[in-house]
Write a structure and sequence with these properties.
With about 80 residues, the chain is an all-beta fold. It is about 0% helix and about 70% strand. The model has no long low-confidence stretch (mean pLDDT about 95).
Length: about 80
Amino acid sequence: PFNPKTAINIQLAMACIVSLKIFNIMGQELATLIHDETMQAGKHELQFDGSRFPSGEYFYRIYVDGRISETKKMLLLK
């Protein structure tokens, strides 16, 4: 759970093109943290500010080289 900011950590095995999007429980895209950025191999930390969203469950989805790589749940509590 977070309120209202959280860090999203990702680790890449090699340099690739990355996008990270935030969705609500209905699958609607609410925000894009990064879009088709080339990122180097290693650990990266991205900040998400949920202050403009109501409390609830959200999902973030990481796309690596255009394919869905991972989807994880977040819980925003205000």
